TrEMBL record, chains A, B:
GO biological process, any: phosphate ion transport
Bilayer-crossing regions: none
Subunit structure: Homodimer.
SUPFAM superfamilies (alphabetical): PhoU-like (SSF109755)
Subcellular location: Cytoplasm
UniProt-recorded name of the protein: Phosphate-specific transport system accessory protein PhoU
Superkingdom of origin organism: Bacteria
The keyword Zinc belongs to this UniProt entry's keyword annotation: no
Family stated for the protein in its record: Belongs to the PhoU family.
Record bears the keyword Protein biosynthesis: no
Listed Pfam families: PhoU
Cellular component per GO, a single term: cytoplasm
NCBIfam families per the UniProt record, alphabetical: phoU_full
Length: 221, 221
């Protein structure tokens, strides 16, 4: 029984890693759609979101079945619960990529972002995608150091996010309120995506070490 | 054993209801701090947030212990997992109230909100507080109709939230970009708070009926 259990747990982890790669792919396309006002790419992200939602539901069902049939205790129990929490964060990352894609679609054929901030979104997009890809690796490897290293990339996202506010609130800002509002929301989507990625990484540290390294909190601004 | 189990489950639900009342109180004070530029009230919300975080951690520990010691199956298992998810949403509601309080503190002694939008935040604040209070009732009563009725209040929050964008993006908006950015973020905090309240309500419907009425999704804008 224990062996069957560990096989199932590995399956769950593999599905989880796959969800993270799906979230990475969604954010990659959504960022490209945003930067290049590419409507068909935006539509693709919007259409694909259901797949991540379904993967989460499936993952949760499997985790429930595992709990009900195997009644794991101690570390095994915490592992299953970490998987359930991680699946929730990964679904949320998919939603945030979806929000970016919808913003790109809403302004199409206009570009959503004025020139001076495009480079910041390009960089946050790259960081978010890389974070989600690394999270997939961490889920598979349970590498505690790699999980901890996620925070550095998250710090860089936070830094860009904070800088965006100084750009749009500058007295020389000449792109108006509507663009500033879009940038505010989009910046938050990228920042939250990175937070959730770190949070999944922390859950995996917990699975590996039995210790939870504090919850990831978003910034207020 | 089953009886001890149900007593523990009732305890968990009582703690959950208490967390919802804490979130309601936090949002009530945060909104007052925001509307009246009341620094000491804002500080109080900021200082109290740890209590909701601790309540969530305690709740999670108890749920884990219950799973490990009682190995519940079927509906009982789903109930415990619903409690774990609900505690996460309630903690998040506390965080969102915290964000509102921090926004009030950041602009102090200036008012964060220009006059034309104050009434909208007053109303969203009331709706959010009422939602969290009703969620506490629903957790205790498992009243499916009351849980479903939460969506109406959430719809009203969404409506105000959408309207805020038309106000700040109007060509006659004369309060500048910084205020628009604050309003954008604050509006989202109130909107997300209501979403999480509805999501807890749905988890409780699930506990009562065994059927999950779809996930609560936030709006993109």
């Amino acid at each position: 029984m224990r062996e069957a259990y560990h096989v199932e747990l590995e399956d769950l982890a593999a599905n989880l890693a796959d969800m993270s790669l799906q979230a990475a792919a969604a954010m990659k396309k959504a960022t490209q759609a945003l930067l290049e006002a590419d409507l068909s790419l935006a539509e693709q992200v919007i259409g694909d979101d259901q797949k991540i939602d379904d993967a989460r539901a499936e993952n949760e069902e499997k985790a429930y079945a595992l709990l009900a049939l195997q009644a794991p205790v101690a570390t095994d129990l915490r592992t299953v619960l970490a998987v359930i929490h991680a699946a929730e964060s990964l679904e949320r990352m998919g939603d945030l990529a979806l929000h970016v894609a919808k913003a790109a679609r809403r302004r199409h054929p206009q570009a959503t972002l004025p020139e001076p901030v495009r480079k910041y979104f390009a960089e946050m997009g790259e960081l978010d995608v890389r974070l989600a890809e690394k999270v997939a690796d961490v889920i598979k490897s349970r590498d505690v150091e790699a999980a901890r290293a996620l925070e550095e990339e998250d710090d860089r996202v936070d830094e860009i996010h904070r800088h965006l506010f100084t750009v749009i609130m500058d007295k020389d800002w000449e792109h108006g309120v509507a663009a500033a509002v879009d940038i505010t929301l989009l910046g938050r989507f990228y920042e939250r995506f990175a937070d959730h990625a770190v949070s999944v990484g922390k859950r995996m540290v917990f699975v590996a070490t039995g210790k939870m390294p504090g919850y990831a909190h978003d910034e207020d601004l």
